[in-house]
Amino acid sequence: MDKIASPATLRLGPAPGLVAQVYTARRPLDGDDRALLLWLHGGNFTSGSLESTRARSEMLAEAGADVVALDYPLAPEHPFPAGLGAAFEALQALAAKPAKLTGSAHTALFVAGEEAGGNVAAALALMARDQRAPQLAGQLLVSPMLDPQLGSPSMREGECGGCECIYTKGWQAYLGDSARADHPYAVPLASSRLAGLAPALVLSIAGHPLNDESRRYAAALREHGGSAAERTLPAIAPGYVLNPVHEFLREAARRALSLPA
């Protein structure tokens, strides 16, 4: 990829707002269609930053999205649902004036995230459905962190799940107590209501500890009648990601923008 200029800084949500960075799409979709994507970084709910996710944000912009990367509150200082609530306020702010960021009245709104950020993105899709707003065109989940039980074969093969595992520590910090593990917004994979959600593209990495739960979530979405494509890739890198993400954004935006308001 060519070098991308430094991103613009933006504040979203109620004042003083959360800090976000904006990356302009570098690949056209169809006609005037644009894909405005709220991106949530990984970090096991406890770490990660806008700087650490810059390469991912640039890659998504190269795939055709106008990316807003959000610096959302982290656990343990801000356990569930603090980060999710703040991200939803940011999403609502984007939905209020999407054309202001993309320059096009034909703008479709997406949520996306990696690992813990994928959990938050999946929960945002559930919230948007339940509140009937904002209208999402799609959700892009990259190795989403969805199962606090940590008992999948890929998790065991990765020698994760024990008390020293980064995923164990992340879930403990995020959930705080076991009662929260039953909340569908905290653990979307455990939700009994997965119908009526925005179309999903779920990307996972072969051999990654989160591979199995990523694939299980895509399968669960399909079982509930949803549209969910999945790909297990050798790596989350431009050579493997750009085309499938671009096609997902293009088709999901086209469909969303052709539906009656």
UniProtKB/TrEMBL annotation:
Keyword Hydrolase: yes
Residue stretches making up the Alpha/beta hydrolase fold-3 domain: 37-229
The UniProt record lists the keyword Hydrolase: yes
Superkingdom of the source species: Bacteria
Gene3D superfamilies referenced in this protein's UniProt entry, alphabetically: alpha/beta hydrolase
InterPro entries recorded: AB_hydrolase_3, AB_hydrolase_fold, GDXG_lipolytic_enzyme
Keywords, comma-separated and alphabetical: Hydrolase
GO molecular function, one term: hydrolase activity
A UniProt-annotated Pfam family: Abhydrolase_3
PANTHER family found in the cross-reference section: AB HYDROLASE SUPERFAMILY PROTEIN C4A8.06C (PTHR48081), ALPHA_BETA HYDROLASE FOLD-3 DOMAIN-CONTAINING PROTEIN-RELATED (PTHR48081:SF8)
Annotated protein name in UniProt: Alpha/beta hydrolase
Protein's organism: Pelomonas caseinilytica
